[in-house]
Amino acid sequence: MDCLVALCQTRPALGDLSRNFESHQDWISRAKDASADLIIFPELSLTGYFLKDLVPEVALRLDDDRVQKIIAQSKDCSILFGLVEESDDHRYFNSAVFAEDGKILHVHRKVFLPDYGIFEEGRHFAAGEDIGTVKSKWGNFGILLCEDAWHAAAPWLHFLQGADALLIPSASPARGVDTDSPELSSQKSWHILNQSIAMFSQTWVLHCNRVGFEDGTSFWGGSSITSPFGQVEAEAEGQEEQLLLFKMTAGPLRRARIFSPLRRNAQPDLIRRHLARLLKDPDAMEQ
Amino acid sequence: MNDLPSPPGCNVELAEKVLVGFLAEECHKVGFRKAVLGLSGGIDSALVVELAARALGSENVLAIAMPHQLSSPVSLTCAQESAEHAGVQLEVVDITPPADAAIADAELAEDNSDRGRLRKGNIMARIRMITLYDRSARDQALVLGTSNKTELLLGYGTIHGDMASAVNPIGDLYKSQVVALSKHLGVPDSILNRPPSADLWEGQTDEEELGYTYDALDAFLHGMVDRRYSKEELRQKGFADDFIQSVTHRVQINQYKRRPPIIAKLANRTINLDYRYARDWGA
To answer: Considering its fold, how many domains does chain A have in total?
Structure first.
């Protein structure tokens, strides 16, 4: 479990694969120079976020040379990075690839695609259907891509599968300066969310958010590492690119779970029965 | 309409950080180091010049004051004070000759009807736009917008005139937030304390022309647009029916000013309808 995590708070260029591939090389070198064991990039780190009609134009198959080049770089350091993945049947997924020991260990296809407000993912992407964990040499990891983290059942499924850490790459837009809060309202929400998820699931939460502007919308950065007790242990600055390093250890996992054995008492079968009942009863679900 | 909700607050430190970052990044990534903007002597452009000087360096910002002979002389003094405070170069361009030529050509010189004043105001705003875009091409400097969210929502501006720009840092700030951020950035008191005015004729003020105070308008628009309160909720908050009706109508009829022209659809992919790319595509 004990490993040095490097969160790469990058500024992807919108729709410019070449430039983003190059910058991935730089970030990976920097993280390796710092002896990182696990490198995490933000959501859609190879493409940028507000892609609109660019989605099929910047999509990559997993056997693409450039993708393979990054995967090859995971021989001595695990890497999680984001891209538009094109499937054999030409569906496009907002995916995060977990590479380790020079091969793909897992691909998480974003399940919950936001399609409201400024978000248009539901228009352009196909939704993933799998919420499984990655058995990395550094631990059992659950990957949640941005909006996935907002649907309580997703981290809970990882929790049931014994996740040690939740890896959350995101492209969260900066919103809300009209309150008295010292933080942007979107940043404040994510703080509460990360800490709550960490406490509910008693896992480390590694949140890697991007920075930069796309058509006037900024991404607030503030990547952070939250302990299984819900304490923010490390946090990047807002707005600027930054490599955030943190030594993640097993000790807090064990202690948090001794203090409150939530997993032991989770009663997944009870939840399953209630869910089955609700699904059969449209009135109760207001479907 | 007593005891109305307060206008929206503004976390000025955060807003400054985001907007300075916005100007630097949105200008630099499209290959521009410089920016140009019109300085009216009012608070909106005074705020933008402060932000631009911080984002691009004051030596990379050109401010242009464009008085007409009917403009208040105080406007030019305030523009000079504002440019000096921000440390940017100020160019003064008298628009009287080109504006009056266009006004004479349109046979509006003696026309002081509401429609005549509107047309003359539009002509002046568009002459200023021509001046700014000419200096933009001369100096390879992006034109910065100075329209705030209140006036954009109310349509209180001239399309292709003062509403024309390449990037606008304050279009998501209500007037009251513009005031708060301007104070934070040290905009001179002489500008902070001036009643907002389009300065098209003597004694004109925004609030008189709009018929309501900015505080009331901002509180209402923020509630309706940002907080998504229903009309019933806004009524309960103390806004009068005729106020709700007239402001809502005004926002709606001016939607055209906030959108690019409508294109008749014929093909499978029509620009902006189903041919959709960010403007920052590849930037």
So the answer is: 1
